[in-house]
User: Fold this.
Amino acid sequence: MDYYSGISFGAMIMIAFIAIAVFLYGMFLNIKKWSLGSTGYGLEPSNGSIGVFLKTLLAAIKEESPKKGHKQSLITTLVLDILLQRRILRRNPLRWFMHITIFVGWMALFIFSLIMFLFEVIELIGIELPLALHPEVLRDTMAVPNDVFSYILLVGIIIAIVRRLFISDVRENTIAYDSVFLAGLTIITVSGFVSDWIRIGLFVDYGIPEVASPPAAFFHVIISLLFCIAYIPYSKYMHMIAAPLVLLANKGGE
Amino acid sequence: MAKRTPSINTNNLTAVQIMEIDACTRCGECVDWCPTYDAKDKSPGLAPRDKIKRWKSFMDRSYGLRAKLFGPKPVNDDEMQEFSDDLYHCTTCGVCGTVCEVGINTVELWESIRANLVKRGNGPYGKQNMFPKLIKEYRNPYMKDQKDRLLWIPDDIKIAEKADVLYFAGCTAGFNQQVLGVCTARVMNKLNVPFMLLGEEEWCCCSALIRTGQPHIDDVPKVSAIHNVEAIEASGVKTVMFACAGCYRVATIDWPRLIGRKPRFKIVHIADILADHIKHGKIKWEKSLNNQIITYHDPCHLGRHCGVYETPRIVLENLPGARFVEMDRIRAEQRCCGAGGGVKAGIPDLAVGISSTRINDAQAVNADIMSSTCPFCRRNLGDGRDNVYGVTGTDFDLRDNPENEMQVEDMIVLVAELMGLSTKIKSQMEEE
Assistant:
């Protein structure tokens, strides 16, 4: 069966599984590494059992802060610190705008892709879906939100690139760890736009016919799966998982 | 070929702290606020972000994917020692944690890594390695006899045999800056708040050991914590009062960790008691500051670490004749005085460099008096003041302040003076 952009669905599933497997192995390595720590201050290191990390994290979340006035509910941390990222806003509104656009854009596109993928699979295994949830109809329904959030993501990426190009302090302190992360995001976003523009015939005048859409989309999907899933535990993308957990453990931080 | 072993281990780091290293987004906000980085001509290795990056690199080389596949990559000794030295330049003030966009608890992280480095043989720094031996042997860092714990008390001060409040004086007020001890005691007497002392049973809080990553050496802080808490609980008091921010921090945060439970008494700072008396109109002032401008320096250990910001301000704002003004960088964003984290003992020049910047903050608001609530801030800000004004050889405890020079003084000394109480210590009284 051909996927909507002409990609073999089987090939995509296979790449997705590889990406998820690489991701899970990386997460296993990270959690194993974190679990080498102790369960509390001044205690002996643990035996490295993978449950140590979860146990320590839960204990930290539940622990009462000894600091006066440092009480915060879990929901406050989730909404204000993790979703709205007020700690960044307090420090630098531009950086907050850059980060929140990347965060919102990335998360929305990730969720949209996941929804599409799920309905493709549901249809593939033969479950009858209401018309509005048929992959082709759903894709059309999501076209506008997909575009909107892609542009939101692009705005954030452009700000990040511009900051690194034109603010000397930021430029001088950018290392490969940051550049690879940003380059990955940029390639994913740009390849997404390009494959979509090829699909709707925007590049026909430049000698790129619509039939070139499947390989372009395939490239975008591979890159997205590799960068947005597989590469997470091995790169700066890891902060997407570690930072919210730190905020939860530290009750939103100082 | 023998299999290589990781160059570093995870001793003293909790599982959450190891995760914190991976959460850093390298935004650089911490770099802009770090007082050490600022005072050392923005030396890149001193930036908190750089320290996290380097420790992450050490961890990855030892436990990352590459290490799993091909074996750990060594961290050479020079690299590790340089990292350790840089880490020991930190005052553990914690402003990097306050401004951290992902909320990393940096104070605890630096202290845990320091302990790891000490176990590895890379720390502590300079004279800091004397702390464990001194405190274990003398139960104070000043090499004084425990029997002399109460020698600072002049005849005019009344100490109760039994009371609801216990004053944990601390080594510095008891031995080194006795003016703080006598002023606290006289003020408490004047306010008719009976208090008792532990006397010889008061052991050093061991702040210096914990802050410099040496809590595990002979378990001195743990032994002291157990001793102090048990002695306090045995005394039957309901409240323990501190006038030292360092001791207060240890009692509030470190004692529960060291003894594995919450102590069965309430912990307050002298500022809390004074603010309460002021609110109820129970303080009778005898003198005035005559319209002098006063500003407040939040000690890291009292403010940022423990969240006590308001009560010292209530006290200072209500001093008769005081014009209270705030400096730049206050409360949670306060600029460190430079004495903490063992820096005053280990790298005194750096400590004075940082405190000089803080004095500049006070100068910018034309402060006549810069007050604080911590003996170490008092000492180091005094040294910074002398450095800025080019004064040498002053005896700080005699409060030798030339004309027109900014006065650096602890809140409790100002309160005692304005309540008409003597601020003379026992030796001064005996000389007269």
